[in-house]
Every structure is written in structure tokens, then in C-alpha cells.
Design brief:
299 residues; 16 helices; Farnesyl Diphosphate Synthase; homodimer; two-stranded antiparallel sheet
């Protein structure tokens, strides 16, 4: 699959996710309409839908029909978006802009932004039991997927990573802590997206485990390359200034290991991800192309 | 069942819930231990465990074994506690004390308090798929219970009620809006507790519906009597000052309808709750005693 095809594939899937998010989210009405407005504002603020696309691609890789798991894919985007809303709050990272647009609390105020995050996190679990999902997926499998989801999003996953990130702000971070933060803050949801897609698509336990390994490697590769691009990237291509990690005294792989070692680590992670897919056929082409793209990209 | 027995019943059940919360919550360890500490701090800050006790009582009322649904009962308390942590935040109600103890953000800071709330909300859904629950309850029934739970906690329930409560702060509130806030902010979780207990305990759809009606009436009765006690209650018995609603310009039933009409409303709601239990046998005695206590209490 050439890069051209991957772009087209991602664009189509992104559009599908966008349409279904718009369809599946509640409508702003009644005395609490404002919080739904805020949820919809952040959901439609230009996300790339990486996690839902990965979930659907993992579903395909085990021979499943990705169109049957759209509520779960949308649920994953709800959790990702809630995490951004809460991360941006004044008490957390205190960001006024995200992807060039005012953050949720800048538009709706802090109270509604907190509630919009809470609402999206809760709605994710409502979507996980949506009739469109329960009509295709068995009850036990759905229970398992919900369990994977909650663990990856909670203190053993994303919330734990965000906690560590905040506690180590402005403090020296060693390699072990940096790995902990990445594995939990961003890695956990990426791995869970792939695992859930495989499970909901009818994958065998062995297939789910292999794709889980793929997800772990991919999540880490994504972060390592992000760190690298912040040092050696082209501002024009990235669309954002480089060197911000160093300026913000953020612990990164290049800072800890040097550029060459970080490049090597990214290549190793790509091979790990591709190795995990070795038993899969052409249905796993999208996952392969994504792993290559994540490491070879220049933006 | 005399009041003495109800007290003993509630005390025993509360102790059981406390023990299992302590056992089932994660342990504070690793780089994110602080957030688990904060979660445990708020969970053990003196809650009465009303919702878990109601869930177990509803389970018993349909002939179920309440000891098999303890993870779900604890999950309900996690969601209730998360809602208190986020409600107390400076951007929301800005409370320094709850039940006489410093609120979560006063002890751990705002960022960790936001994350502790997020962590508890997410952990609730992890508990809903805990092996101790899935080994007793069928996959489909569990999916249904999770769906009821998420709807009651989210924008169509508690989060919606809290949104309306915040948006109508310092504004005149009519009877319809007051009912909306109560039905959503506190009523939704109480109703869901009873519904989930009935469903997880193996109740028929008709039993679940009847207990849902019980829960709706009980939740509203609880709020109506709370409003009433703030006007006519005895400060010594209540252990808190009366008249605070009027001082805070809070919309209440007595303010809108007068004391006599509010008393009558409380009695009507008690009868509604008891009527809903008419088809049940002695297994529903705890639920009956709770409905009578909620309306007749003087604290």
C-alpha cells in the first residue's frame, strides 16, 4: 500500500467517524443543552481520529466488519477528547488554544468544560452498550471490551500517565519515568483501540494479543518520533515551532538518549510493530502502512 | 420493620460496602500513586453509602443475593464520590469542606482532584466488568446495567442536572426547572441504583420497572424533605445550620409551594414509593422502611 493509498484510506475513515460522531452524540436541548454544545464543540475541533481509525483497522485485520463497531470507535474518540478538555484546564496545562481554536473552557467557562469532559467520558460507556453495537457483538465480548477500555482510560492507564506527567512537571525525569508517562498517558488508549478492534471484530485470543503488541509498539513509536521531530523537524511541514520541548524543559527521548539512538529506537519500534503483524494477511495492510507512516513521517 | 431494625440493617450494609470499597479500589503505588490516594481519601470521607445500600436492597427485593453484586454497588459509590469531588472544585461550587473534612482539592490540589474524579468515574466501569460480577451475571444483563448506569450518570442524568444547577445559579427558577434539576442531579443515580439492583438480581422487566418507579419517587422525596428540613428542621438534630437555602437564594420546594404543600408532596411521594412495592413480599421490607424513614426523618 503506497502512501497515497494510506492517505485516501485515512481520509475516508476519518470522514466516516466524523459523520457517526455527529449522528451518535446527543443533541443540545433542554436546561442542560449547554454542556452538550461544549461536548460537540470539542469533538468537532479538528481531531485526526487516529484511535477510531486504528480500532476499525484492527477489526478488519482479524476479518471483522468495521462498520459494525462504529459506536465503539466513536466511544474511543469521546474518551480521547474528554482527556484533552481536562488537560487544557487552568488547573492542569492551562492552554488557551488547541489545534488553533480556543479550548473548551475558553469558550464555555471552566465549570461547563469540566462537565463536558465528564459528560464525554460517561457517554463513551453509553456508546459501548449502544443497540447498534449490542446487536452485532456478544454480551461477554462486549464486557471484555469495556473492561479493556476502562483500564486503559483510568488510573492504570491514561489518568495514571497524566498524573505522573503533572507530578514530574519541572522535575528531572529519568528514562524509566519517561517510559511510564508515555506508555500510560498516550500509549494505553492507542493499545486499547487496537485490542478492542481485534476483540470486537471476532479475533482469537492469540490475534488480540499480537495486535496488542502492535499497539504498544505503535504508541511508543508515535511518541518517540514526535519528540524527534520537535528537535530535527521542519517548522513549515510541522505547522508548529520546533524546540518547544527543550524550551518547556520537557523530558524527551532525544534529550535522554541523543538523536541517533532515538532514530534507532523509532526504527526498532517500527520493526516490532510489523513483526507483530507477521501472521496476518492482506487485511492487515492498513495497520502495516500506519506503522511505517508513523515512523517515516516528517510532520 | 421498626426503625431500630432499619438502623441496624443500614449500619451492617454500610460496613460491608466500606470493606469492599477498601478491598476493590486500586492501591496507591508507582508514579501515579498520588491520584489513587486522592480517590481513596474522598471515598473514605464519611459517605452514608445510600446508593449502594439501595442497590443491594433492590437486588434482595427481587430475590437476588446482594453479596454477588458488591462490585456494582461499589461502582455506584465511585460515581457518587467523583461527582462530589468535581462539584466541590473552585470552578464549580468552590467548597473547602465536605462532611467536616477538607475537600479533595484542598488536600491534593486542583489538578489531582480533577484527575481523582476522572479516575473514580472510569474505575466505576472497570468495576462493572469485574470478574466477581461477571461470574454471577450474564453478559447481556451486565450490558443493560452498564447502559442504565452511564445514562443516569451522564448528560441525560447527573451531569445534565449539575449543568442546569450551575446555569441557573442566582437566577429565578420555576417549578419545572427545579424538578428537572432534582430529577437529574440527585434523582437519576438513586433511580439507577434501584434499577440496577433489580436487574442484576434477576428481576423480571416488570419488577425492574416497578422498582424504577420506587426509585424515582424516593429520589424526589429525599430532596423535598431535605428542602423542608432546611426550613423547619432542628439545627441540633440536623447537625448543620437551617435556613441556608434561603440565605443562598436557592430555589426550594417550600419557597415555591409553601410548607404545607411541600409536606403533602412528601407524603404523596412516600405513598407512591410504597405503592410501587405493593406486588413484592417481605423481601422488599428494607425498601419500604427506607421510603418511610426518608419522609418521616427529622435529620
Amino acid at each position: 500500500m503506497s502512501e497515497f493509498h494510506l492517505k485516501e484510506y485515512i481520509q475516508k475513515r476519518k470522514q466516516l467517524v466524523d459523520e457517526h460522531l455527529d449522528r451518535l452524540l446527543p443533541q443540545p436541548e433542554g436546561p442542560s443543552g449547554k454542556v452538550v454544545e461544549a461536548m460537540r464543540y470539542s469533538i468537532s475541533a479538528g481531531g485526526k481520529r487516529v484511535r477510531p481509525i486504528l480500532m476499525m483497522a484492527a477489526c478488519e485485520a482479524v476479518g471483522g466488519d468495521f462498520s459494525t463497531i462504529l459506536p465503539a470507535a466513536c466511544a474511543m474518540e469521546c474518551v480521547h477528547t474528554y482527556s484533552l478538555i481536562h488537560d487544557d484546564l487552568p488547573a492542569m496545562d492551562d492552554d488557551d488554544l488547541r489545534r488553533g481554536k480556543p479550548t473548551c473552557h475558553k469558550v464555555f467557562g471552566e465549570a461547563i468544560a469540566i462537565l463536558a469532559g465528564d459528560g464525554l467520558l460517561t457517554y463513551a460507556f453509553e456508546l459501548m452498550t449502544h443497540p447498534e453495537l449490542t446487536s452485532y457483538v456478544g454480551g461477554r465480548i462486549l464486557n471484555q471490551a469495556i473492561s479493556i477500555f476502562a483500564k486503559a482510560a483510568g488510573v492504570a492507564g491514561m489518568v495514571g500517565g497524566q498524573t505522573a506527567d503533572i507530578l514530574f512537571e519541572d522535575k528531572p525525569v529519568d528514562a524509566q519515568t519517561l517510559a511510564y508517562i508515555h506508555r500510560h498517558k498516550t500509549g494505553a488508549l492507542i493499545r486499547a483501540s487496537v485490542e478492542m478492534g481485534a476483540l470486537l471484530g471476532g479475533g482469537t485470543p492469540e490475534q488480540v494479543e499480537r495486535l496488542s503488541n502492535y499497539g504498544t509498539a505503535l504508541g511508543l513509536a508515535f511518541q518517540v518520533v514526535d519528540d524527534l521531530l520537535d528537535v530535527i523537524g521542519d517548522e513549515k511541514k510541522l505547522g508548529k515551532p520546533v524546540g518547544s520541548d527543550e524550551k518547556n524543559k520537557k523530558a524527551t527521548y532525544p534529550a535522554l538518549f541523543g538523536i541517533e539512538e532515538t532514530r534507532k529506537r523509532a526504527q526498532d519500534l517500527k520493526m516490532e510493530a510489523l513483526d507483530a503483524l507477521s501472521g496476518f494477511g492482506s487485511e492487515a495492510e492498513p495497520l502495516r502502512a500506519i506503522a511505517i507512516y508513523v515512523v517515516e513521517r516528517d510532520r
